[in-house]
Each structure stands twice: as C-alpha cells, then as structure tokens.
Amino acid sequence: MITEKENINQLPDEELELIGKFARKKLENDELYTFSLILCDNEIDRDNEKFTIQALNTLAKLFVGKTGIFDHNMKSKDQSARIYAAEVVTDSIRKTADGEDYTYIKAKAYMVRTEKNKDLIAEIDAGIKKETSVGCCVSDISCSICGRNIKTEGCEHQKGKTYGGKLCCYLLSEPTDAYEWSFVAVPAQKNAGVIKSFNPMHETEKLADMAREYQSELQSEILRCAAGVLPEMKSAALEEICGSLSIGMLREMRDAFRKSAQKNLPVVRQLDCGGADEESENSEYKI
C-alpha cells in the first residue's frame, strides 16, 4: 500500500468539523496533515484469526477518536495521530481465503503539523511508515470449524490446520473496546496500513480530460472524411458545427461520414497486376 501527500488546502468543511470535535481550538487547513488507513479486515491473518463482519461494524464506531502510537507502546509521548472518521467498506469482487466478500475498516486520521513530527509526515508520504496494527478487546472467540467459544468451552481443533478441506481459524466477534492503533513493522493483518486516499475531484478532472481528448479525435476524423466526401464544404464551418455537438452526436456523424466515404471513394490498389501480354517464364509468380 502506498501513501499520497494530502493537499492541505482541500479538506472539506465537514471533515474540519469532525476534527474539531477532538481539538480545543479551531484548526485551519494549513495546520493539519491527514491520511487514510485500513485498520483491520475480515481476512484470515498471520495468527490464523479473523474479525467477523459484525465485529468490524462495531469496531468502526469504537475506533473514532482513538489515538495512533508506535508498536503498541502505551505512553503519551508516543501519541502521533488521532482517528476522526471510520467506515466499513466491502469489496464484493475480492474474496477472503474462506470465501467471504473482502470487508475492511477504512479510517481517516489527522495530526497537527509541527517541527517534531515533520519527519514522521515525510516517512508516511514516502511509504516508510505505513503498516499498522490495532489494539482492541473482543468477548467472543470461536472456532471456525465447530463454532465453540474458545474462551469458555475450548475444542480439539487447532487453528492453522485444515479439517475436511477447510482451514481452521479463530473468529473474533463481539468487540467491547478499542484501545489504540499503532505503526508497526510487521502487522498481524497483512493489509492493515496507510493507503492512498481517493480524491473524487482528481478523478473527475481525469475523466474530463479523457472526454476532451476523445472529442478531439472524433472531430479530427470527421474533418478527414469530410474532405473526401464534401470537398466543397469549408473546414472552419464544419469545426464550428462539431464544437456544438455532444460526444454521442459526434460519434454518429463520424460513422455516417465513414460509410459515405466507403461508398463514394474508389479503392486504389497499391500493387498493379501485369498485363496479359506480359508473359514470361516467371509470369505465374507475378502479383
């Protein structure tokens, strides 16, 4: 997962308002650094455990306002950021190892730009600091094979082993608390960490550029076809007409000119065959 430096002047008012709930003073855009991260998901992790989707929905609420630290070291001097928003996202195209739709908690965190944390911000932007891990408590841990509660009943199945073609893992559900989230070197969950933020404005601009480029290509082809089919028509007049048409109408005009050009323009052979009187011992091999 890669990071992207946030545009410090583009935080919408609603996000500034969310951040303001945790600050004693009003913070301006140029004071803030924000980034997005995947906190946890429903994939089977390195410990052969996984959060249920119910657990993710609960944790998304519990983690709002929780602080970010390093290596789960619960000292105030290690506080680096705070989550101000979180939501559960489902990717129905991607499947987990046990066949569920991949689901994760996407969180947004902020920190105040200071001389002290400028190196951390640089490391986040460079993708050096990106892996994260969560600290939380769940009241139910059950076996994915038999469904028994590991805390109260236990069972004979061992997580990480396969039974009847099904991998055994422990299902974590019924969260009761979320403590913190940490930057770590090797997270239990492989996908947890800072992610590149989706900028809808940037995507809209990209699509607009692509549309303009396609529109220009259509107009150029129309002008080329018209030069052969309607040579008496001035190109400036046709350009003005094209400029007022939608992409759909331009496409229809291009197709019409293409058909007209195919009917009216002669097909010119690049290779001419030799005449019947040009006989030679190699004439049967001539094109």
The residue fraction in helices comes out at 25-40%
Oligomer: single chain
Query: Helix segment count?
Result: 6
Largest sheet: 8 strands, mixed
Strand content: 25-35%
Radius of gyration: 31 Å
**Number of domains as seen in the coordinates:** 2
Structural class: alpha+beta
Any idea what the shape is? elongated
The count of β-strands is 10
Pattern of helices and strands: HEEHEEEHEEEEEHHH
Task: Detail the poorly predicted runs.
Answer: 1-7, 197-204
The rounded distance between the terminal residues' Cα atoms is 59 Å
**Overall residue-averaged pLDDT value:** 81
Verbal overview:
By secondary structure, the protein is α+β, with helices and mostly antiparallel strands. It folds into two domains: 13-198, no CATH class; 201-264. Helix content is 29%, strand content 27%. It contains six helices and ten strands; from the N terminus they run αββαβββαβββββααα. The protein has helices at 13-20, 53-62, 118-125, 200-229, 235-243, 247-264; strands spanning 32-41, 49-51, 67-70, 81-95, 101-112, 132-143, 162-163, 166-167, 170-183, 193-195. The strands form two sheets. Strands 1, 2, 3, 4, 5, 6, 9 and 10 form an eight-stranded mixed sheet that branches. A two-stranded antiparallel sheet has the order 7-8. α4 (200-229) packs antiparallel against α5 (235-243) and α4 (200-229) packs parallel to α6. The longest helix is centred in the last third of the chain and has 30 residues, at 200-229. The radius of gyration is 31 Å and the shape is elongated. The two termini are 59 Å apart. The model is unreliable at 1-7 and 197-204 (pLDDT under 50).
